[in-house]
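Title: Prediction job returns without error message
Component: structure pipeline
Severity: low
Priority: P3
Assignee: unassigned

Description:
Job completed but the reporter wants confirmation the result is attached to the right record. Sequence as submitted:
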Amino acid sequence: MHIADMAISVFVVVVIAVSFLSNVVVLICFLYNQEIRKQVPGLFILNLTVCNLLLTVSNMPLTLVGLINKGNTGGSGFCQTVGFLDTFLTTNSMLSMGALSIDRWVAVVFPLSYHSRIRHRDAVIGLGYTWMHSLSFSTVATCSSWVGYHHLYASCTLCNARASGSRTQFIIYTVVLHSLTFLLTLIVLCVTYLKVLKVARFHCKRIDVITMQTLLLLVDIHPSVRQRCLDEQRQRRQRATKKIITFIGTFVVCFAPYVITRIFELFTLGQINPHWGVLSKCLAYSKAACDPFVYSLLRNQYRKTCSDLTNKILKRSSFNSSARMVENGRVNDTNNFKPTH
């Protein structure tokens, strides 16, 4: 095996492990915490988590096997099913990210009317659209027999070779698919999160004015306290920018190479480096490992839920071990004080 294939295989194994464990933790937190289940964004996070888990257990391992064996390991029907899931789950995940950004924009820009603007019924309608959108594109590709094993990506996905008889239709389909999924979601992310950043900076400026006025009035304040206030002021300004960069940056870094390679593949006659093709596919997979941290596990509510679950498990384990020690002690005492004949 080539050293590049070995490195990519290790990368896929790490992505599978991190994606599976982190998404399972998010799912456990969702089922355990009633407050998370009541929130409207929880539906989109649940949908995103389930899509990531299905992608992790179905498509990623087969890509790893295809990378190691240098070929398809299943039959034509099995590969078409996996390819259907690849298109459906990836499209559904992208649209779920767009829905989460819209929810965050409404919550920040219209905080007083958020609960009247975004209700569970609206979230269900949004989820219904994402499913119909994803099902329509994946069904068209499967029914047109455009899904098969693609050696460039070492996975069962949309395959140019299977569309040789209808190349024009395949090009139109691929361009429309990525325009209405990747490009549309990217535009939504940029518009909504930049508006969120604008509002966050406005509030930071108001807080900074109040902080500076307070520091000017408190002439006897210790220099270390003054410096701490200024440091917190600077961190507050940077916090919102870092979050926005994380939301948009992870989406672009993970999905853009794969989408660009897909479009470039349609209009070029040259050979694309197979290592680059597999790497771009693996980068798209890595978004499933990033999403739990970007949208869930780094939030205080999920962190507190994880902490409560961990403490509950450790206390129960500690209680059980203590009970066993006490029981063993009683047995030993009983044996020591047996009457002798």
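Comment from assignee: result matches the submitted record. The two ends are 76 Å apart (CA to CA).
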